[in-house]
Design goal:
This protein is an alpha/beta fold. It has 19 helices and 14 strands. The protein folds into four domains: about 130 residues, Rossmann fold, CATH 3.40.50.2300; about 160 residues, P-loop containing nucleotide triphosphate hydrolases (Rossmann fold, 3-Layer(aba) Sandwich), CATH 3.40.50.300; about 70 residues, Helicase, Ruva Protein, domain 3; about 55 residues, Arc Repressor Mutant, subunit A (Orthogonal Bundle), CATH 1.10.10. Helices cover about 50% and strands about 10% of the residues. The strands form four sheets. A five-stranded parallel sheet has the order 2-1-3-4-5, sandwiched between helices. Helix 13 crosses helix 15.
């Protein structure tokens, strides 16, 4: 069953503009219709639910304001874009207060029209998804009980997990920090023939070479100072089960060599012992680094890389699967509500917009922390935008504050990035404010703020701030 194309309505009392807009939006893969008056548009709205309505503000008889009012009553999820002239900035502010998604200043370019419609469609999709999640009483558990989402990218990951889980193949899980590499590994184990046996997770990044080796392989009495008795390692304890080795990019070349031998026949020699032991263990590796680059640099063994690169699963970052943000948020919401004894049904549209509009550099782990905080703060039936911190440039800076550099060069990079991000929003607002106060006249704006015109234009280019173009659609 093919999905319905988005339905767009253009409302303008000039036929040429309507036809031009239909032609422009033909590249957006949507069904576009038009009405030549506000009165005709209201008739069409009564019988059809449109995803986006683009309406001129000034029309004879019934204007765009009345179209907007009617839509807010009968079709609150329809996104309305109002076309307005520069002389009616106050009207633009008024329509935004009334609930319009956005407004297009006259004249506008084809690129600007397509961009605002695509943004409106994305907002419409978010509102629909949020409503469906709010109304959903019985939430369907995904294949792994933890791999939440409907995006094509996460569906591909789930499919790969389903295929490899019943086998004993070695798996390499790749992805940024916080994407859920351990969840993937646990899903593989839970859906394998080993599910009734133990699952061991080892963070290789937190253990020294000697400690990691003794933890994995165990040791014999007297192997080193303090070894007063034999100790079984994780491989011995996990016999029949699964061992997950996280952040394998951090292990030494020496341990890589011993793991390579272990992978060949599942035999190992505990530290200080002369007796080889054999076990039946499945290995799953994970990394947030580019191992191929590390092989080229000589910090990762090529033969070990090829041996673990049997069945790689790449987990996409959250910013590449925006459609999964709300389902994951609702999953965490219900999880924390149970833990805190709260009865919160979902997110209001403001909160949902903040969640879906952010790139989540900390991925699912960061999203989980934000939802936990929101549940703690919320005292209402739904979480509002007040409980969701303003996500964006400042949140990115806060994420950098939490990052602990491991070298002086890394420290310098982080400090530089913090300085850059700290000024970007202030700088952008500074330029926009100056232009708005001087009717988008660059010379006047630059003179007023005390900048050379060339320097002012350089800042505009840096922040992608553009003046209305002359080669535009006459709307």
């Amino acid at each position: 069953m093919t999905a319905r194309k988005p339905l767009i309505l253009i409302v303008d009392d000039e036929p040429a503009i309507c036809r031009n807009c239909v032609k422009i939006l033909s590249k957006v893969d949507c069904d576009v219709r038009y009405a030549l008056s506000g009165h005709e548009a209201l008739k069409m709205i009564d019988g059809t639910v449109f995803d986006v309505v683009v309406t001129d503000l000034k029309m004879s008889n019934v204007g765009g304001m009345e179209v907007l009012r009617r839509l807010k009553v009968c079709c609150p999820e329809t996104m309305t874009v109002v076309i307005t002239g520069y002389a009616t900035v106050s009207s633009a502010v008024e329509v935004m207060k009334m609930g319009a998604f956005d407004y297009l200043p006259k004249p506008f370019t084809p690129v600007e029209l397509r961009a605002v419609v695509q943004q409106a469609l994305a907002q419409k999709e978010m509102l629909t998804q949020n409503r469906q999640l709010l109304e959903q009483k019985q939430r369907r558990k995904s294949f792994s009980h933890q791999l939440i989402g409907e995006s094509p990218k996460i569906k591909k990951v789930i499919s790969m997990v389903q295929k490899v889980a019943p086998t004993d193949a070695t798996v390499l899980v790749c992805g940024e920090s916080g994407t859920g590499k351990e969840l993937i590994s646990r899903a593989i184990h839970a859906n394998s023939n080993r599910s009734s046996n133990v699952f061991f997770a080892v963070d290789c990044g937190t253990l020294s070479e000697t400690l990691l080796e003794s933890e994995l392989f165990g040791y014999a009495k007297g192997a080193f100072t303090g070894a007063h008795q034999d100790k079984d390692g994780i491989f011995k304890l996990a016999d029949g089960g699964t061992v997950f080795l996280d952040e394998i990019s951090n292990i030494s070349l020496s341990v890589q060599s011993k793991l390579l031998r272990f992978l060949e026949n599942r035999e190992f020699l505990p530290l200080g012992s002369t007796r080889t032991q054999k076990v039946d263990v499945r290995l799953i590796f994970a990394t947030n680094q580019n191992l191929e680059e590390m092989v080229k640099e000589g910090s990762f063994r090529q033969d070990f890389y090829y041996r673990i690169f049997v069945y790689p699963i790449l987990i996409p970052p959250l910013k590449e699967r925006k459609a999964d943000i709300l389902p994951i948020s609702y999953h965490f919401l219900h999880q924390f509500c149970l833990g805190f004894g709260k009865k919160i049904t979902g997110f209001d549209n403001d909160a949902a917009a903040r969640l879906t509009g952010y790139d989540w550099p900390g991925n699912v782990r960061q999203l989980r922390n934000v939802i936990e905080r929101a549940v703690i703060l919320s005292e209402k039936e739904r979480i509002t935008g007040k409980e969701i911190p303003l996500l964006g440039e400042m949140a990115d800076i806060e994420a950098l504050f939490e990052h602990v550099p491991e070298t002086n060069e890394a420290l310098k990079r982080v400090k530089k990035e913090i300085r850059q991000k700290a000024v970007i929003k202030v700088e952008k607002n500074f330029i926009i404010n100056a232009l708005a106060k001087h009717n988008w006249n660059i010379t006047q704006a630059a003179r007023k703020v005390g900048l050379q015109r060339t320097n002012f234009q350089a800042l505009m280019k840096k922040h992608n701030i553009k003046l209305p173009k002359k080669n535009t659609v006459d709307a």
